[in-house]
Amino acid sequence: MAVYTTLSASDITTHLSQHYALGELTAHTGISEGVENTNYRLDTTTGTFILTLFEKRVDAMALPFYLGFMRALDKAGIPTAAIIPTKAGHDTAPLHGKLALIAQFLPGSWPRQPTAAETAAVGALLAQMHQTGMALKQ
C-alpha cells in the first residue's frame, strides 16, 4: 500500500481552503499503487485532482528539479499531470509537516498485459522524456 499518511476529509478540506481555489471537496480516495509518496484522488466541485504528500524518503532539495522537469515535460507536449499552483503561486504547501502538491488528474489506467505496440509507444515516449531532460541540463 502506498498511502503512508492517512488524511481525513477534514484534513483535505482545510488544506484546500487555505491553499487552493479548487472548490469544495466531494470525495477523496487513497491510491494504493506506488511506492514513494502518499497519493490521493480528490474530487471537488471544480474537477478531479491528485494530491501528493512527499514522504521522508524524498529529498526536499531535489523537488525544484523534479517540479521543473514536470513543467518541461508538459511544455514539450508530453502527457503529464500539470501542477496546480497554490493561491500564493507556489508549487507546494505544507500538510501534516510534509510538502504536498496538487496536480491535474489524468484519466486512464495502465495495461496489465501490454501489447507490443503499447510497449513501443512507451519506449518512444521515454526517449522523448530523456531528450527533454537532457535539454534541461544545457
SSE blueprint:
Layout: H1 9-19, E1 25-30, E2 38-44, E3 47-53, H2 63-75, E4 83-84, E5 93-95, E6 98-104, H3 116-137
Antiparallel strand pairs: 1-2, 2-3, 3-6, 4-6, 5-6
How is this structure best described in words?
The chain has 138 residues and is of the alpha+beta class. Helix content is 33%, strand content 23%. The chain has three helices and six strands. It has helices at residues 9-19, 63-75, 116-137, and strands at residues 25-30, 38-44, 47-53, 83-84, 93-95, 98-104. A hairpin with a 2-residue loop joins strand 2 (38-44) and strand 3.
Quickly list its features.
3 helices; six-stranded antiparallel beta sheet; 138 residues; 33% helix
pLDDT < 50 stretches: none
Bin the strand percentage. 15-25%
Number of strands: 6
Task: Sketch the major β-sheet.
Answer: 6 strands, antiparallel
Radius of gyration: 16 Å
Name the quaternary structure: single chain
Q: Overall mean pLDDT score?
A: 91
How far do the termini sit from each other?
38 Å
